[in-house]
């Protein structure tokens, strides 16, 4: 009975894994228990040899690619220099070299022609500038000559009218401006001989207004007293007739007018008694870098909001 329950060393080694720790024979070590099979060591010894073979094969392949690339590059350069003919090209290398020399000669000749054209163009521009300068001088001389001729004609008429006793009364400006930078001046023509046509004398009688000579009036008429009266539109030396626009604002797209935007601004600097409508219609403005001689329309909004100018300007997005 006792021998049946006494375990042997051999039987202990055949027990399940949970009992192997207790069944380890005396004298055995943990290194022996944890050692891997011999076949695994043989596989790991073969791995370095395989990697060396692969790396050597790759190096040989790289060298072959470098050599082939160098050979192809040399062939390409020689073909471009016409030193080597291409098997697919039936043109000989000598013909290519001749064509290449001819091409270089044509390029050189073209460069020479381009330089000649540039010199000719420069000479032409100089001649044009010289011609423009001469033309400007000629125009200035002509302007001076015409001015002298007008002065002489004016002086002749003045002398002639003085001999006849005809003269203007001092011109007097209207109290109110007529339009932008413009005032109406009036004068009476005196002592017209009875044998002369008063209208012809009036239209041909010079005068000096605000320091500037004027050849003829803008209109002649007889007033209620039967006097010959003339009037002139004077648009110089009239700083009090220069109104100005407030900041011009964009309002909206112009209704019923595709492609146009509506701008508006109030007109300031109008003198008491001036015609608001005429002043608005003749006052220039600048919108978006563009000059406008007058608004599209004018809107008189009374004493509180004043005269407002409205411009319809081409506008993207409208």
Automatic annotation (TrEMBL):
Coiled coil (residue ranges): 114-162
Biased composition (Polar residues): 26-37
Region (Disordered): 15-37
Keywords assigned by UniProt, alphabetized: Coiled coil, Membrane, Transmembrane, Transmembrane helix
Superkingdom, taxonomy of origin: Eukaryota
Transmembrane segments: 61-78
Protein known as: Uncharacterized protein
Species: Lentinus tigrinus ALCF2SS1-6
């Amino acid at each position: 009975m006792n021998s049946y329950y006494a375990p042997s060393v051999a039987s202990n080694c055949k027990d399940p894994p949970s009992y192997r720790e207790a069944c380890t024979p005396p004298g055995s070590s943990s290194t022996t228990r944890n050692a891997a099979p011999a076949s695994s060591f043989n596989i790991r010894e073969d791995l370095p040899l395989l990697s060396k073979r692969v790396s050597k094969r790759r190096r040989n392949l790289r060298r072959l690619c470098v050599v082939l690339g160098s050979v192809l590059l040399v062939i390409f350069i020689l073909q471009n220099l016409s030193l080597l003919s291409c098997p697919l090209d039936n043109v000989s290398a000598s013909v290519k070299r001749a064509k290449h020399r001819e091409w270089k000669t044509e390029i050189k000749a073209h460069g020479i022609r381009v330089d000649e054209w540039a010199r000719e163009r420069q000479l032409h521009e100089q001649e044009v500038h010289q011609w423009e300068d001469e033309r400007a001088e000629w125009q200035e001389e002509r302007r001076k000559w015409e001015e002298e001729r007008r002065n002489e004609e004016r002086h002749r008429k003045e002398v002639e009218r003085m001999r006849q006793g005809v003269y203007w009364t001092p011109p007097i400006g209207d109290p109110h401006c007529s339009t932008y930078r413009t005032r109406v001046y009036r004068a009476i023509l005196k002592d017209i001989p009875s044998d002369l046509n008063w209208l012809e004398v009036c239209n041909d009688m010079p005068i000096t207004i605000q320091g500037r000579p004027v050849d003829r009036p803008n209109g002649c008429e007889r007033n209620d007293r039967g006097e010959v009266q003339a009037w002139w539109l004077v648009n110089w030396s009239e700083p009090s007739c220069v109104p100005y626009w407030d900041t011009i604002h964009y309002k909206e797209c112009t209704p019923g007018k595709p492609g146009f935007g509506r701008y508006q601004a109030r007109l300031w600097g109008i003198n008491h008694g001036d015609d608001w409508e005429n002043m608005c219609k003749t006052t220039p403005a600048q919108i978006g870098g563009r000059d406008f001689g007058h608004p599209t329309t004018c809107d008189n909004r009374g004493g509180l909001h004043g005269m407002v100018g409205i411009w319809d300007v081409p506008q993207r997005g409208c």
